Amino acid sequence: MQHKLYVGNLPYSFGNQDLEEQFSAFGSVQSAIVLQDRETGRSKGFGFVEMGSAAEAQAAISGLHGKEVNGRALVVNEARPQEPRSSGGGFGGRRY
């Protein structure tokens, strides 16, 4: 098991520090990042946490998946590699 976790359904008020605080109860947090919209700076409602070990990551999944925070049930699972994006510009891949 890897140590990087996907965290979804975050309250939009959550920042990196809030995310780190939630996960620190389960072990050493190496990094905690809430993704933000480039234009507005507003949270996208999901982020990633890297734990110190696989055991800590599993403990965080068990302890936080489904936990309600500010009226939202967190989704916590192993992060998967990002899917490659197509190189098309939105016009069916055709370049003009």
Automatic annotation (TrEMBL):
Domain RRM residue range list: 3-81
Gene3D superfamilies cross-referenced by the UniProt entry: 3.30.70.330
SUPFAM superfamilies: RNA-binding domain, RBD
Keyword RNA-binding: yes
GO MF, any single term: mRNA binding
Keywords: Repeat, RNA-binding
Domain of life where this protein originates: Bacteria
Protein source organism: Lampropedia aestuarii
InterPro entries linked: Euk_RNA-bind_prot, Nucleotide-bd_a/b_plait_sf, RBD_domain_sf, RRM2_NsCP33-like, RRM_dom
Pfam family, one: RRM_1
Protein name: RNA-binding protein
